[in-house]
Write a structure and sequence with these properties.
Distance between the termini: 40 Å
Largest sheet: 4 strands, antiparallel
Mean pLDDT: 86
Number of strands: 25
Low-confidence stretches: 477-495, 626-659
Shape: elongated
Radius of gyration: 32 Å
Strand order of the largest sheet: 6-5-14-16
Structural class: alpha/beta
Number of helices: 26
Length: 775
Amino acid sequence: MEELPKTYNPKDTEEKIYKLWEDAKAFEPKIGSRSTVDGQRPFVIAIPPPNVTGSLHMGHALNNTIQDILIRRSRMKGVPTLWIPGTDHAGIATQNVVEKKLAKEGKNRHEMGREAFEKEVWAWVDEYGHIIIDQLKKLGCSCDWSRQRFTMDEGYSEAVKTAFKHYYDKGWIYQGERVINWCVRCQTALSDIEVEHLDQKGKLYFFKYDKNFPISIATTRPETKLGDTAVAVNPEDKRYAEFVGKTFKVNFVGVEREIKIIADPNIDMKFGTGAVGVTPAHSLIDYEMAEKNGLPIIKVIDTLGKMTAEAGKEYEGLKAVEASQKVLDRLEQKGLIEKTEEIDNALSVCYRCNRPVEPQPSKQWFLKMSELAKPAIEAVEKGEIKFSPPRWKKVYLDWMENLKDWCISRQIWWGHQLPVWEVEIKDQRSKIKNTIYVGDNPPEGYKQVDDVLDTWFSSALWPFAALGWPQNERHPESSDEGSLSLSENRHSSEILRSTQNDEINDLDYFYPTTTLSTARDIIYLWVARMIFSGYEFTGKKPFDNVYIHPTVFNKDGQRMSKSLGTGVDPIELIDKYGADATRFGLAYINTGTQDIKFDENAILASQKFCNKLWNIARFVMIQMGHPEQSEGSGSLSANPASAGDSSLTLRMTPKTSPSLKLRAASDADKKILDSLDHLIISVNSNLDSFRFGQAAHDLYDFVWHDFADIYIEESKKQADDNTKAILLSTLTQSLKLLHPFMPFVTEEIWQTLYEQKLVAEKLLINASWPEHKSK
RNA sequence: GAGCCCGUAGCUCAGUUGGUAGAGCGUUGCGUUUACAUCGCAAAUGUCGGGGGUUCAAAUCCCUCCGGGCUCACCA
């Protein structure tokens, strides 16, 4: 063992230490028997699988630091602990990335065809999909990499098909024609929550369709008015009461239309003119009104965002914006525009590409939500699943209680193709489409539908599918048929731990998981859907706790965004300050609020803190090993003289044992041991309630001030064996408590302590976690 | 329109059950004594957004207003 250098250098240790853990298989829980420590269930976290296309951002860094803290502490407690990692295929996001790459090469997916395109994406995933995983390792994440999953590996795809068939057989999946959110850029349907609303200034135009029409209307999108088939007014509105039920023929900017006046209680009499032009084809609400009132539907904008033939010859082929201007010009010419107002408007955009969403009538697949929502609401209401901070419970419930059916089909190529095969059977009168769900063998002549499932459909299954559902599911009646031919499946065969017979498998042993830690913006997209999926497919909750971590903004309070250049790259922080400093700093600033304005100083302070700890260790080791060591005498290592002293080794039992407390000879001794006791209590209770920042503050204050500034200084005046024992014990306890936060330095120091026989356990990662016994 | 979060030292933020304001960075002065200059000691700086209320006592609980941010919602 070399002498410890004066300053801690992360670059010398991080890679080496990570390898040490991996070689020791320290991240892989043993599932040999059913018994667990103190009857406790295993502690399990299923990582929010990052997109394969992703690279680590601050949110990831924070979230995965949090998870690793929980995981490492649990492991040290002696509880069987699993952190299961993986990546998400991220349908639209990944397809967009690959399409962009192809565009640079002058190719596009339509020319190359679906099969070739999918190959391209797989190649892309093989080449770049590991990047984010490597970055997680750099951060120090102690995931069990032997269990790593991908939401499109074979076993997982099986899970998706099984889930789909299950819903379909229950009659909850149906195909329907209705107005959905359509992204003109991504060329696919989106679900309601995949649409974001940007506040914008807009213009509200007041006009009449033509001069013979009795009612003025107001709109922000004149071109859509070409598709109007009605005007809706509030039934209470006396101004228009006389017209309700009548139909007027109009010539609207050169296009002949019939407009019926209808009454609808949702119309706000105070807004605009109190009369709304109803555009059934391009507005979700208007579509509903049209259905109620039997209105015709005229589609005037196509899936590319251009005007259709139905919009009229003059407008056909124009982009929506162009058509809008043309309509306005025509109205102007005819003197039909009454006024224009500036208003605040919400522009609907795609959450993946930020381009405007164009509502379109379209035939899509939907999942009925009413039944699924019930147990998911109840579980959270009754506290079976707990949100932390608790206010997110309300956010979750508000959404769940107003759930609409989920549009699950997407018109892209990258994803789980719907396990639906169709064939057209010719009837005498007409053609009838027969839809057949197929597990394995679609009948002759059937063709699989093109659509792919929403990425979140597969993410929703994550906690149990990642653990081997449905293959690992127990079927008591027919257990050993082995009909699943998984032999060719590389991934699945690795994953299916002990599927056979009475041996315990991962799903049995590790599910339900314990804690989910994630960002608030995917409570609906992901968390809610995992909850109802969990109950539906396993009959159990997917996790006990949901921890919603703060959002990390930059110093100016702006959202961190790569494209806007407002982000901070955590990998750069790791390179600059070390992984431990990055982690500790993130934990340190994760206090009460739900927003973090990121300040790099926190990482800098943590780097200094790592160094402080390092030098405390140096000091203690010098005390232990070289009582009379002279300046510059070289190695700290080969001096087992006092280290080998058995009485001293005994004192090294890491718990703040009462025996050690009794030795508190001086006030300083007493004080440091008391403080350590309090620290153990506070760190444990803070971590139990997800108060990471508070735990980090307490650790920082104790180690730096109570230990280094005060006790170490005092210890210099009372250099007896008892003091040494307290120094060493305080150090080892601090290392243990800090290990989940700063795994690398603490392990590195521990290794030196071990080599000097100052501690008994070989790896800190396996050492026992300090608990306050008297409680 | 509904809901949520925040407003404490120049900056970024702590301040679990109410009890005479704290840290890091920055600023000023001193300091190389058995680890650490990525250090130590000391110092300065706050009407705890404004106002009202409860209380012996409020940054901490209640009300209200102002300011900043977020989310949901069928205001065309």
